[in-house]
Write a structure and sequence with these properties.
alpha+beta; globular; 11 strands; Protein Transport Mog1p, Chain A; 8-stranded antiparallel sheet; 3-stranded antiparallel sheet; 247 residues; 5 helices
Length: 247
């Protein structure tokens, strides 16, 4: 059998491997067609996530009351603050407000402070025209809290998160001009970041309506409506002044 003759040189096919420079060129072209390489995508995503977490919250620590809380960096302090409030913040569009409250418990009232404080808050809200929903039980970082949500006819909602632990009463109030303070994602991210600086034990739950804790809660509940009215007045005065300057 005769061997098969070779094709002429001009008709032969050779499989050539690309040079290193050509490989780089091919990769660059492929990345340009797909937008960006997977490795670079992961790097950019990680960088973006870290920057987002860094800018999303600013920690606030209250060593005298053994707790800390974080608020978005876009929120600004409310001045002047309502009486008996440790910290108060508002969102950039002024549609959300957050108030933080803590007070010491008298030793003789430790067994009744938790429930009396809640009852006082609800009584103060009801006296000022809030429609109050049933209490809700929840846990924040291992500590039992009770939330109380109130509504005004204007559409404003307020949810108070209350706890009694160690030798103090704690309350974080979220107020929304529209929407539900109990389900708003931004507000909930703040509430879930409430933490104690050192371990404490929750206090028992019983009632004595004339206790100091009851009266403190009642006063805070009543202050809410006046705070909202004052905040609205200040907001509209600033808007009116701004319009006059721009006219």
């Amino acid at each position: 059998m005769k061997p098969k003759p070779l094709a002429p040189p001009h008709r032969r096919r050779y499989k050539l491997e690309p040079t290193e420079g050509e490989k780089v060129s091919i990769r660059t072209k492929q990345e340009g067609e797909s937008g960006i390489s997977p490795m670079r995508k992961n790097l950019l995503f990680t960088t973006f996530l870290l920057l987002s977490l860094t800018a999303s919250a600013a920690p606030l620590s209250f060593p005298d009351h053994n707790f800390s809380i974080e608020v978005p960096t876009t929120w600004t302090p409310i001045n002047p603050m309502p009486p008996q409030v440790l910290a108060a913040f508002r969102s950039a569009d002024n549609s959300k407000k957050l108030l933080v409250f803590a007070t010491k418990i008298q030793n003789k009232e430790r067994s009744i402070a938790a429930s009396d404080f809640r009852d006082g808050v609800k009584k103060g809200m009801t006296d000022q025209g809030w429609q109050v929903d049933p209490e809700q039980q929840l846990t924040i970082r291992g500590m039992p809290f009770v939330s109380v949500t109130g509504h005004l006819p204007s559409g404003v909602t307020m949810t108070a998160y209350l706890a009694a632990a160690g030798d103090e009463l704690y309350m974080v109030q979220a107020i929304l001009r529209a929407g539900n303070a109990a389900t708003d994602p931004e507000v909930q991210s703040v509430i879930q970041n409430f933490s104690f600086l050192s371990p404490v034990q929750p206090l028992p739950d019983s009632t004595q309506p004339q206790s100091a804790a009851f009266r403190a809660g009642q006063v805070i509940g009543k202050l809410l409506i006046f705070f909202l009215i004052a905040a609205c007045i200040v907001h509209f005065i600033k808007r009116a002044r701004s319009k006059r300057r721009n006219a």
